[in-house]
Amino acid sequence: MTYKLLCFFRALFQNNQSVTSRPQTNPENQSGSAACIKTITRGVRLAMHYTIFDTPVIRTLMRWISLFVFKIRGWRIEGRFPDLAKYVLIAAPHTSNWDFPITLCLTFALKGKIYWMGKASLFRWPFQGIFKWLGGIPVDRSKSNNLVGQMIAQFSSDDNLVLTIPPAGTRSHVMKWKTGFYYIALGAYVPVVLGFLNYRTKTGGIGPVYLPTGDIHADMQQIRAFYSGIHGKHPVQEIYAVLPSSQVLSGVELQEAGMRA
């Protein structure tokens, strides 16, 4: 009887272990980029921390404060957060440190919840807890730690996640677009939402929802085109392009297209 019980618990333990490990398909049978992502992200699960957007009383108070600040400063809000569970939110153009507090105010005003990626130096003591509470995720740019793969794994493990990424990695007079946000959205099967701050018209808000096609050159040209008439606090090199409306999809169209969000 004792031997049978030992065998039973051993089999149960092995079964739970196999489920937890989630065996992956052999990467040799997959395409190069997909195999690489699955291999790197295997077993990775990050717990998203509690933020100010999860604090009922404070988030309500901050919403009223944000609306008041926008009113006295003459700013207008356009659009709203899409009714999607998961997506990558672009915050552009990023030319000033003022972009951060204005983006937070915009998020409170629109009753949103975001996480944002910031350089690791911002999260040093004594500000580490504050910035994480504000939704920050520290990023060590000096190490090649495959941030794209980690964020793809995070999207897979969370039912609700809005990740805010400035597409331009540095604040300069030239808009240097980086493609990390695109590969995160493409690998996680989530859309890209175009957020903006236009200092010239004092307008901030949420623009169209864009579905990556896999053709990064064509997609980036169209995404950049949306920002061609949007001006940051400091002048940057203007980008002129045509944005075909056929590539901009609404949240309903994304769901009909089978986008996992």
Structural account:
With 261 residues, the protein is of the alpha/beta class. Helices cover 39% and strands 16% of the residues. Strands 1, 2, 3, 4, 5, 6, 7 and 8 form an eight-stranded mixed β-sheet that branches. Strand 6 (192-198) and strand 7 form a beta hairpin. Helix 2 crosses helix 6 (147-157) and helix 3 crosses helix 4. The termini are far apart.
Reconstruct the topology from this structure.
Elements: H1 2-21, H2 32-41, H3 56-73, E1 76-78, E2 86-92, H4 99-109, E3 115-119, H5 128-133, E4 136-139, H6 147-157, E5 161-165, H7 180-188, E6 192-198, E7 203-210, H8 216-226, E8 248-249, H9 251-256
Extract low-pLDDT stretches: 1-45, 238-261
End-to-end gap = 50 Å
Rg, Cα atoms, Å? 21 Å
Q: What share of the residues does DSSP label as strand, in percent?
A: 15-25%
Total beta-strand segments: 8
Question: How many structural domains in the coordinates?
Answer: 1
Helical percentage = 25-40%
Integer average pLDDT: 75
- Principal-axes geometry comes out as globular
N-to-C SSE string, H for helix and E for strand: HHHEEHEHEHEHEEHEH
Q: Structural class of the secondary elements?
A: alpha/beta
Features:
single chain, 261 residues, alpha/beta, 8 strands, disordered N terminus, disordered C terminus
Give a quick summary of the entry.
With 261 residues, the protein is an alpha/beta fold. Helices cover 39% and strands 16% of the residues. Strand 3 (115-119), helix 5 and strand 4 form a beta-alpha-beta unit.
